[in-house]
Specification:
Two copies of one chain form a homodimer. Chain A is α/β, with parallel strands linked by helices. Chain A contains 13 helices and twelve strands. Chain A is 43% helix and 16% strand. At the A-B interface, helix 1, helix 2, helix 4, helix 5 and helix 9 of A face helix 1, helix 2, helix 4, helix 5 and helix 9 of B. Chains A, B: It holds the Pfam family Aminotran_1_2.
Chain lengths: 372, 372
């Protein structure tokens, strides 16, 4: 058989396309920072700054409408999640609830820190709250982890109704919510629901990142929560890597001040909206009701499809048909797919309209056994 | 009592003085990197680069005379140590041996990862190898952690004789050595002994950093070891923070290529040698035989002193006498000082000759109970 590897449609990584990175402006701001604070950016951060650069925390505070004391900055949001999991798991029990599917790296972090992860089925408007209620009524978890906006991997947004019901459950049963919001500002259609933190600041720890709205390479992520937790994350961080990059944080602060983050979001929204619309249309055509949602933003659409192939067989057939997929089961706790189903994550942000359409059609052919 | 806080001699932090940072050259290289690779430094690192920037690993390989496959780069050497401890502890048992005293943050990392840390007394020429032999003969540790050059906190260098004997023990009893070498290139007097890795590359994992020889703010540290271990550290890193900063790594690569690291080392050596010499003289005068060693490099001299004060009483008396000290017991496993002794770490790199002398004399007065 011919090797088609070089032509495979890569439905794999959630990396922004180069077109949405305003690298010239980022480089210019970096040069300005180097001119203004040459010593500070190449030296250790001052003692007591382990929650992050003061100016960046002030800007993030303004951006999110919260006191800077409620912000902790780290080397990207995955590192924030690692520190937060280390802080929460054990202290509040070992049971962690997530959506199913959920972000695979998050699940792995929870397991690494001793968490016992249970999944709550994800519907087109968010987690199944009846399932969640049953679980929390039996046993209070350390926390419920959710990506309420344009979820990775499913592309689902939690409806406002479910958000209100979820924080109600959190109050009733006394558990914490960790909401991860990297894609929230990348909205192409429809109106945003309130964040969970806006609905219940006392019950919610928020994680976010500048990776999808400014630059992944800067490696700037942050947590928003109660001031005590932020101090404790900062102590864990200091004992792990001393301080996050002073230069990256100074550039990020400047990019918020200067409006570059907002311009960058506008650029991404303008560039990605047509890809989103075309992806939804192509996926609807390919998978019909298997399509989990029409996201309205972010990077992903996804489908649950019926197949009598095993996942390994399906992935191999997909490659033969010209498509490389991430393993869908990796997004589920215990790597257990819903019975008789396969899960397909389809990132559209980095693909041309044509490539996405070709990939979706090829997958539909595999589902229908029109190819082997 | 008057508040003398603002005039205290700070014998506390191992931060390089601003005078040794070649910030203008660093800024220039950073600007060049931004001009040449604007997209790469603001994007996610390419897949498969989780061991670090290729060019930086090639340069570090040249610098250390090892294959780049044996190098893993991370956000500073403490982060390297955290990943390495996570990798080694458990896999090879939970017992960790260190020098006593040792770097406090290293000890805390080992404990956090479930290590049971036992100290081996540090003499003027390195760890007491009779004690070490007794310990390893009874029980093979996961590893022995050592800072063989200008140790933090004691300033001690391990003699060549002891290095050879140590790797002999490691071979005989089948344990790993983790050598941490951030200060090695900052030598002001005398000749360097071989590294432990040079003596036994099969038994030694090396950690080092550009913080003391180029810039702490870059947050670039690295491990050198067998290629398999490097791959496993890279996988742990990817699951924790995805990738280390592309910009910082690109600047570090350029600084090695361009000779800036060597110029920076020369600058540090020229600037710090007189401080070292004056510190050794002042500490010898103040503490006599209590001085642990005349280091010949690095940032620290130290003393073990007899006192019938408790450590808390001593630190308080020192503050009244105008000196702020780190708590010496923090550098010992179980925070247990040798009976009847107190340990004083005296970083000299950031103090004027006059301030160091004043501080050492004030501490001598506290030891002699000439002040209260």
């Amino acid at each position: 058989m011919a090797d088609h590897t070089s032509e495979l449609v890569p439905f794999t990584r959630g990396v922004p396309p180069a077109e949405v990175l305003l690298v010239d402006e980022l480089a210019k701001l970096t040069t300005q920072v180097l001119e203004e604070s040459p010593v500070a950016v190449f030296q250790y951060a001052p003692i007591g700054r382990n929650r992050g650069d003061e100016r960046l925390r002030a800007e993030l505070g303004r951006h999110h409408g919260v006191d800077p004391d409620r912000i902790f900055v780290s080397n990207g949001s995955l590192q924030v999640l690692d520190l937060l999991a280390r802080h929460l798991i054990g202290r509040f029990g070992r049971s962690v609830l997530t959506e199913a599917p959920t972000y695979d790296r998050a699940r792995q972090i929870f397991e690494r820190h001793g968490g016992q992860v249970t999944g709550v089925a994800l519907r087109g408007d968010g987690a199944d709250l009846d399932q969640l209620r049953d679980l929390v009524a039996r046993h209070t978890p350390a926390f419920f982890y959710t990506i309420p906006d344009f979820q990775n991997p499913a592309g689902v947004c939690m409806s406002e109704e479910k958000r209100r019901a979820l924080v109600g459950l959190a109050r009733q049963y006394g558990f914490l919510i960790v909401e991860d919001t990297p894609y929230r500002r990348l909205r192409y259609r429809g109106a945003a629901a309130p964040t969970l933190a806006e609905l219940a600041p006392d019950r919610v720890l928020t994680i976010s990142s500048l990776s999808k709205v400014l630059s992944p390479g800067l490696r700037v992520g942050y947590a928003i929560g109660d001031a005590d937790t932020m101090v404790q994350l900062a102590e864990l961080a200091e004992g792990t890597y001393l301080t996050a990059s002073p230069l990256a944080q100074a550039v990020a602060a400047r990019a918020l001040e200067d409006g570059l983050v907002e311009r960058s979001i506008q650029r991404a929204v303008t560039f990605l909206a047509p890809r989103h619309d075309a992806a939804v249309e192509a996926a609807r055509e390919a998978f019909g009701d298997g399509l989990l949602s029409e996201p309205g933003g972010g990077y992903f659409v996804s489908a649950l499809v019926r197949s009598d192939l095993t996942e390994a067989e399906f992935l191999a057939a997909a490659e033969r048909a010209g498509v490389r997929l991430s393993r869908g089961s990796a997004f589920f706790p215990d790597e257990r797919l819903p019975a008789g189903s396969l899960f397909l994550r389809l990132p559209f942000q980095a693909l041309s309209l044509e490539a996405f359409r070709r990939g979706a059609r090829a997958l539909a052919d595999v589902v229908a056994r029109r190819v082997r």
